[in-house]
Amino acid sequence: MTFEWIQIPYALLTVFIILNYGMIMTAIMQKIGARVGGRYGIPVWQNYIDLVKNWALRTKITHGVMFYLGPVFRLTGGLGLILFVPTIYGSVMHQNFSYSGDLILALYFIFFGTLGMALGAGESGHPHSAIGVSRGLAQVTAAELPLALAVFSISLQYQTLNITEIVAAQQGSIFNWTLFTNPLAVIAAMFGFVGTMMRSPFDVVLAPQEIPIGPPTEYHSAYLALMQTNRVIFPIAKTIIYMNLFFGGATGWGAFAVKVFALYFVTVFIGVVHPRFRVEQSIRFFLKWGLPVGILAIMAV
Amino acid sequence: MKDMDKSFKKDTETEFPLREEMRPHQVTAPDGQVIDIDPLQDYFCQEPPKVHAKSYFKIVEDFYNWARAHSLWILGFGTGCGAIEMRPLMTPRFDAYRYGIQWRPTPRQANLLVISGYLSVKTLKRAIRAYEQMPAPKYVVGLGSCTINGGMYWDSYNTINKFDEFLPVDLYITGCMPRPEVLMAGVLELKKKIKEGRADGANRYVENFEWYKANQKRVIKNWNMPDYNW
C-alpha cells in the first residue's frame, strides 16, 4: 500500500472518535454493572471528570525513567493497535496504516502494553505492583494461547495475514462471518478475549481488595491519567480486532458502535455473574478448556 | 480529676530507641564489599514539601476545582467506629458513586482522607504517612466527635484529642456516631468548599510545616520515619 500524508489526520480522527466512544461506553458499562448490584451508578461523563482531575493534580512523584515510560508504553500498545488495524471496512478515512501483515503486528501489540507496564511497575518498587505484574503476565500468556491458535486457524482458513482481506472475505451475508464458517476458532478466541479484558472473573491482576490494585499502585496524577486513557482505548482496540476477524468487521460507525458494544458486553455479562478466579485457577482454566478448543480449531481447518 | 491529657503530653522527654533495623549498620555484599547503611537517610527521600501555586488563569483554576469536586477519591482507610459508617455509602441504599465519589485502595490515587473516629497514637502515625503520600490538592475530613475534642475518649492515655493539631482538617462532621447520611452531607459540603477554592489544606500543611511536625513528634515517640513521607 502507498503512504499519503492525509492518512495521518485521518488516523488521528479515528483515534479521537474511538477515545470519546470508549469514555462514554465504559461509563455505560459501569452503570450496567452498578444496576445489576442495585445501585444507580456513575454519571456517563464521570470518566472525563476523572481524567481532568488527574491531570490537574499538583504533586507528581517519579521513581525513575522506567516509571515514566510504563504508562507511555501502555498507551503505545493501545494506540498502536488502533493505528495499524483497519477500523471501518471500505472507508478511506478510517483505514489507518493497515498493511499486508498487520495481523502479526496486532498480536504483538496486544502483549506490548503488559510488558511495558511490567517494567514501569517494577521500578515503582512497590511489592504489590510486582505481584500484580507477575500475575498479569502469567494470566495474559495463558489467555493468549487459545487466541494465537485461533488466529493461526483463521489465517490458514483465509490464506492471508491481512486483516482487510479477512474482513473482505466475510462480507455479503451474516453467514459468511468467521463466527459461522469457523466456530471453533471463535470459541477459542473468545476465551482469550474474556481473559485479557481485566474484568471479573479474570481480574486478579488488579484485585482491589487483596493487593491494592496491583501494577498501578504507585501511579498517580498525570501517569494515572495516561493509564486511564489507555484503559478506555485498549479494550476497544482489542474488540476492533475481534470484530474484524470473527464478526464481519464494520462498514460504518453505526455498525461499529453496535458490534463493539455487544462484544464488550459479553465480558461485562460474564463479569457481573462470576466471582474472581485465583491466578492459578484461571491459568488452569485456559489450559484445560481454551487450549484444546484452539487445537481443534487448527485441526478442523 | 487529674488531667490525663496534659500529663500524657508532658512525658515527651524519654528517649525512645530506634528499631533494630532502622539504626545505622553495615551490610556485606555477596562479593565481599562492606557497605555502610543509614536506613533513615538512605531508604527515604529527605526533600521537604513545597507550596504549590494555583493555576495562573482564574478560569482554569475554577475549572480544575470543579473537576476536583466532582471526582473525589476517598482513601479506603478507616479508624475507630466510623469506618463502618463509610461502607453503606458504597451500597445501593446510599450509593455515593452517583456523586463521583470512589474509594481507592492506595494513597497515591486518593484525594480525600476520612478520619472516621478516634485516633490512637499508633494509628496517627499511619494516618500521617498516608496523608503525606497523597498527591496535592488533598482534603481531610474528621468524622465524629472524637476527632474534634476526643469525644468519649477525651481522657484516654492513648488517643489524640484535637485532630486539627496534627493534620490540616477541611471539614468536621459532628456526632457520635454520625449516620451515613451525615457523612454524605458533609462530603457534599466539602464539594462546595472545593469549588469555591477554599479547601487548600495541602498548602496550609506545608506553610505551617514546623508547627505540625512539632505537634506530631510530641505524641509519636518512636519517630522512625523521615520528616515527610514522599
Walk me through what this model shows.
The complex is a heterodimer of chains A (301) and B (230). Helix content of chain A is 69%, strand content 0%. Chain A has 301 residues and is mainly α. Chain A has one domain. In chain A, helix 2 (46-56) runs antiparallel to helix 9. Chain A is globular and about 55 Å long. The two termini of chain A are 29 Å apart. The relative contact order of chain A is 0.17. The model of chain A has no long low-confidence stretch (mean pLDDT 85). Chain B has a single domain, classed as Rossmann fold. Chain B has 9 helices and 7 strands, in the order αββααβαββαβαβααα. The radius of gyration of chain B is 20 Å and the shape is globular. The model of chain B has no long low-confidence stretch (mean pLDDT 85). Chain B has helices spanning 4-10, 39-42, 58-70, 83-86, 121-133, 145-149, 180-195, 201-207, 209-219; strands spanning 25-28, 34-37, 73-75, 102-104, 112-116, 139-143, 171-173.
How would the global form of chain B be characterised?
globular
Specify the oligomeric state. Answer: heterodimer
Q: Strand percentage of chain B, roughly?
A: 5-15%
Computed CA radius of gyration of chain A, to the nearest angstrom? 19 Å
Count of helix runs of chain A: 11
- Sheet with the most strands of chain B? 3 strands, parallel
Q: What is the residue-averaged pLDDT of chain B?
A: 85
Strand arrangement within the widest β-sheet of chain B reads: 5-6-7
**Any low-confidence stretches of chain B, pLDDT <50, length ≥5?**
none
The SSE order of chain B reads HEEHHEHEEHEHEHHH
**Distance between termini of chain A?**
29 Å
Total domains of chain B: 1
CATH architecture of chain B: 3-Layer(aba) Sandwich
Strand content of chain A: under 5%
Order of helices and strands of chain A: HHHHHHHHHHH
